[in-house]
């Protein structure tokens, strides 16, 4: 199942690179973002890469045309949008400021305190991700593998199995919330993790809607967004290398099976659940041969 993650993330990098880095300036932004995240892994590296992409886009993608089309009918007032944005920021920054009072992941502070730590971890991963489901992979790894809540093999196996499940990739949070070592886990942990990872996106969309028409009409905002999207390609490429490739591909046979899964997804256009089953079967065969 870990090799499925290699193929799926590689397919995502390939598709996003073709769509979001069609010229040399944006390809350069992607490569620079990839290198930055590799040398500075974690949430800080991703945030800096996004900021770099936006700044580089302002300089290199200034010919981007402003968006055209009619105004978006938004049943959300500016005041309600501002409240949502403040709540988003408060839930993101508040636990960090209160970090000394929060329980350690295995600190024996009781289910309620550890449930708060679990919510904080998944909310932060959902809040800092930008550009698609696969980009959340290194953030989730830092939040649940780094503290020792779950081992790397189970983390990537669950991520690979999630490719066969319909719906957004963020639903892997339910698996991780159920599988973490500290309580609450099981169904309560799954519910906490699932709500926490989707909540920041909901608050951001609700908060940004009243201001969206003004932003999309500005050429400079469009240029910054193009650079940001290119940086996302680099971030995803870094995630393909570490943790996906580093953790999953151990020898030439693993590499061959991952390439086969990638070809099935891209050239063969096989459904992801078929690729998951075939790759899992291939992994069992390889395990018997070792």
Observed structural traits:
single chain, 290 residues, mainly alpha, 13 helices, 0% strand
The rounded distance between the terminal residues' Cα atoms is 17 Å
The strand count comes to 0
Q: Give the count of helical stretches.
A: 13
Please describe the biggest sheet, giving its number of strands, its sense, and whether it closes into a barrel.
none
- List unreliable stretches of 5+ residues: none
Shape: globular
- Please state the average pLDDT score: 82
Helix content: over 70%
- As a whole number of angstroms, the C-alpha radius of gyration is 20 Å
Report the portion of residues in β strands.
Answer: under 5%
Helix and strand pattern: HHHHHHHHHHHHH
Secondary-structure-derived class? mainly alpha
Structural features, described:
This protein is mainly α and 290 residues long. The chain has a domain at 76-214. It has 13 helices and no strands. Helix 8 runs antiparallel to helix 9 (186-208). The longest helix has 30 residues, at 219-248.
């Amino acid at each position: 199942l870990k090799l499925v993650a290699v193929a799926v993330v590689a397919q995502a990098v390939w598709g996003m690179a073709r769509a979001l880095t069609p010229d040399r300036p944006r390809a350069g932004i992607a490569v620079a973002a990839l290198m930055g995240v590799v040398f500075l892994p974690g949430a800080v590296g991703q945030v800096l890469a996004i900021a770099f992409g936006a700044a580089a886009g302002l300089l290199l993608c200034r010919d981007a045309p402003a968006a055209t089309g009619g105004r978006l009918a938004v049943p959300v007032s500016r005041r309600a949008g501002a409240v949502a944005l403040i709540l988003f920021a408060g839930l993101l920054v508040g636990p960090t400021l209160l970090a000394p009072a929060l329980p350690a992941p295995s600190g024996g502070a009781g289910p309620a305190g550890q449930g708060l730590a679990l919510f904080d971890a998944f909310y932060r991963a959902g809040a800092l991700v930008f550009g698609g489901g696969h980009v959340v992979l290194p953030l989730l790894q830092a939040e649940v593998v780094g503290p020792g809540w779950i081992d790397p093999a189970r983390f990537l196996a669950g991520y690979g199995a999630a490719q066969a499940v319909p719906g957004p990739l963020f639903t892997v949070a339910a698996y991780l919330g159920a599988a973490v070592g500290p309580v609450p886990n099981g169904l309560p942990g799954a519910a906490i993790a699932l709500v926490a990872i989707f909540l920041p996106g909901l608050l951001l969309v609700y908060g940004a809607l009243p201001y969206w028409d003004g932003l999309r009409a500005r050429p400079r905002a469009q240029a910054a967004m193009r650079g940001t999207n290119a940086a996302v390609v680099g971030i995803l490429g870094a995630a393909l290398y570490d943790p996906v490739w580093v953790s999953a591909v151990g020898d030439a046979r693993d590499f061959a099976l991952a390439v086969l899964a990638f070809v099935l997804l891209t050239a063969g256009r096989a459904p992801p659940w078929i690729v998951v089953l075939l790759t899992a079967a291939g992994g069992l065969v390889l395990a018997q041969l070792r």
